[in-house]
Amino acid sequence: MDYQAVLEEVAAFARPLVGRGQPADYIPALAEVDTGHFGMAVADVDGGVYGVGDWERPFSVQSISKAFSLALVLAEGGDRIWERVGTEPSGNPFNSLVQLEYEHGIPRNPFINAGALVVTDRLQTLTGDASTTMLEFLRAESGNPEVSFDPAVAKSESEHGDRNAALAHFMASYGNLDNPVPTVLEHYFWQCSIEMSCKDLALAGGFLARHGLRSDGTRLLPRREAKQINAVMLTCGTYDAAGDFAYRVGLPGKSGVGGGIVAVIPGRCTLCVWSPGLDARGNSVAGVAALDHFTTLTGWSVF
């Protein structure tokens, strides 16, 4: 596969869509991001990496971090996390409170905000420092020691995080958080504030394409648990548009409101695309189209 040629064709296809949509204006630090950016990277299972456009420009990973926190919890603590969070699509916005009351404080899946807070809580219990543990992991897997938090984004999220605080307190009332709510929120906001490029994220997510093997060849996860993450990414990874994403793209994917999407082709490669203009469901307009075109050109999907 000539990845570079494919990426150039994908970028040309997506170019008319770049700039469409809106940035995540409910997080003030992200509201001013230029929606004219577009970057895309592919990292194959052997560590080769290819890119186009703004593929080396860092951006706020936001909810993409949820896939990595889930992986670290499974690696550190095994599958006990599934006693506290489900694996079903929610069908509701990612910050909805509605289902928690009906389902007694058990989030529907680990990629809605409530579920991610439970995963962060578990990672904090297992490691004593959830956000730093994730940062160190992402630096190691991406091979980039410059990956870092963005304090301005973390502060902005904290100052406008009332809905997340409500979710956390509600789950705490059902006994589904082990750590104090302020601690869980702090680490959650910091992990969402991490800045990475498409290149960094494609490399860091490589363990999901390698069925649980890290970049150095050591095993992070058993093959079964890597499969579980990919499965939940396919069904739940793009907010309440997961069904449409699976229909169009046909790959496990995790999006973030910073405009990034990571997608996995098990056994082949990991993709990351970034363009900050979001659709009404919080997914990158140009990013989804680019991934759709990539799978059309290559014929690669999980189906």
From TrEMBL:
Stored HAMAP family = Glutaminase
Q: Which family does it belong to?
A: Belongs to the glutaminase family.
**SUPFAM superfamilies attached here?**
beta-lactamase/transpeptidase-like
Q: Which Pfam families match?
A: Glutaminase (PF04960)
Provide any one GO MF term from the record.
glutaminase activity
Annotated EC: 3.5.1.2
Asked if the record carries the keyword tRNA-binding, the reply is no
One GO process term, biological-process aspect:
L-glutamine catabolic process
Question: What top-tier enzyme class does this entry carry?
Answer: hydrolase
Q: In which organism is this protein found?
A: Streptomyces olivoverticillatus
InterPro entries given for it? Beta-lactam/transpept-like, Glutaminase
Q: How does it assemble?
A: Homotetramer.
Q: What is this protein called?
A: Glutaminase
| Residues that hold substrate according to the record | 63, 113, 157, 164, 188, 239, 257
Catalytic reactions of this protein: L-glutamine + H2O = L-glutamate + NH4(+)
Q: Which UniProt keywords apply?
A: Acetylation, Hydrolase
